[in-house]
């Protein structure tokens, strides 16, 4: 529960969210490489999701890449959430 | 036929050790969170895994061919329980130990998504035990251990892994480490 995250729900949004568990993430930067359109790296190396906080909407065309990022994250900090 | 098996058994052992060495180096690089020249981070992770699996395949051939060899005098139990071998039980036992460790490491790595990152990590640390044990087995058990090419090979592998380990333990090993702990300290 991250109450401060902006609610990413809106009619036009994609149906899958990429959830980042910050307690697990170690900022290794694999996900930012695989999903450069979705995630940038902050100055400490952690992923930065352009205003979406911990739940980043994944457009359909990036779904495969997001799945790869989930399975390759060395800390298993990423999950995909259907909504 | 026996000659061929013997040659294959020895050769695959050396290739397996070489591949394991490369995988250890890539694993350490992977842990640092850095790319390898043009190879992005996720590719380093994938190559690390694939090279380890290839090494495992060569290890399997190493075991099967030497099982069929009369000189090595292997019994099935020697694949699982260390230090019971008929010939050179200590050095063979190190090989068995390395196989056991390797099985645990590979299986937990492949099941990482199921067993969770803690168990995976705890078992993966055993690689630092497995690699030297495998190297010692190759030196003590290998009939090529006295040959110049083998000494050069073993020395190259050892220097590479020791240097990587030195880097692993050094400050600034992890990318962004210096930024994260603060440049002032
Ligand atoms: S790959 Fe995982 S650990 Fe690395 S930055 Fe992304 S979420 Fe964090």
Automatic annotation (TrEMBL), chain A:
SUPFAM superfamilies: 4Fe-4S ferredoxins
A Pfam family matched in the record: Fer4_15
Superkingdom in the source lineage: Bacteria
This protein's name: Ferredoxin
Organism (species): Cryobacterium algoricola
Automatic annotation (TrEMBL), chain B:
Residue ranges crossing the lipid bilayer per the database entry: 12-30, 51-70, 90-111, 123-140, 146-167
Keywords annotated in UniProt: Membrane, Transmembrane, Transmembrane helix
InterPro entries, sorted: Fe3_Rdtase_TM_dom
GO CC terms: membrane
Domain Ferric oxidoreductase: 12-134
Subcellular location: Membrane
Any Pfam family the entry gives: Ferric_reduct
Topology within the bilayer: Multi-pass membrane protein
Stretches of the chain forming a coiled coil according to its record: none
Major localization class: membrane
Keyword Transmembrane: yes
Protein name as catalogued: Ferric reductase-like transmembrane domain-containing protein
């Amino acid at each position: 529960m991250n109450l401060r995250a902006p609610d990413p729900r809106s009619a036009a949004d994609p149906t899958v969210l990429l959830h980042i568990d910050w307690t697990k993430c170690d900022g290794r930067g694999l996900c930012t490489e695989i999903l450069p359109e979705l995630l940038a790296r902050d100055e400490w190396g952690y992923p930065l999701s352009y205003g979406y906080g911990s739940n980043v909407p994944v457009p359909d065309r990036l779904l495969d890449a997001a799945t790869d990022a989930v399975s390759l994250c060395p800390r298993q900090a990423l999950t995909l959430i259907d909504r | 036929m026996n000659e061929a098996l013997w040659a294959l058994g020895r050769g695959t052992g050396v290739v397996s050790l070489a591949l394991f060495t490369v995988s250890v180096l890539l694993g350490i690089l992977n842990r640092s969170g850095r790319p390898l020249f043009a190879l992005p981070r996720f590719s380093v992770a994938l190559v690390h895994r694939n090279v380890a699996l290839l090494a495992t395949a060569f290890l399997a051939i190493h075991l099967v061919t030497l099982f069929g060899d009369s000189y090595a005098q292997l019994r099935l139990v020697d694949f699982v329980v260390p230090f019971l071998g008929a010939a050179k039980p200590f050095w063979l036992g190190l090989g068995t130990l390395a196989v056991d460790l390797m099985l645990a490491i590979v299986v937990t790595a492949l099941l990482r998504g199921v067993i969770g990152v803690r168990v995976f990590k705890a078992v993966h640390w055993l690689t630092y035990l497995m690699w030297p044990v495998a190297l010692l087995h190759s030196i003590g058990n290998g009939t090529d251990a006295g040959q110049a090419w083998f000494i050069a090979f073993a020395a190259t592998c050892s220097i590479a892994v020791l240097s990587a380990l030195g880097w692993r333990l050094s400050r600034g090993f992890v990318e962004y480490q210096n930024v994260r702990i603060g440049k002032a300290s």
